[in-house]
Amino acid sequence: MVEETQRDDMTWYRCEKCGLMFDSEDDATKHEETCDAEDPSYLR
Ligand SMILES: [Zn+2]
């Protein structure tokens, strides 16, 4: 799911699967629906 992040007084939306950041929640949600990075092995 999309993770909200505060940075530089802006809200960013991060794809939890691949780590890509978006400034629009809509963009992030759409990206995540098609994101094929199912295994975020580099996260935690
Ligand atoms: Zn992604």
From TrEMBL:
Any Pfam family matching the protein: DUF7128
Molecular function via GO: DNA binding
Chloroplast recorded as keyword: no
All residue ranges annotated as the C2H2-type domain in the record: 13-40
Keywords, in A-Z order: DNA-binding
PROSITE patterns tied to this protein: ZINC_FINGER_C2H2_2
TM spans (from-to): none
Protein name: Putative C2H2 zinc finger DNA-binding protein
Organism: Halarchaeum acidiphilum MH1-52-1
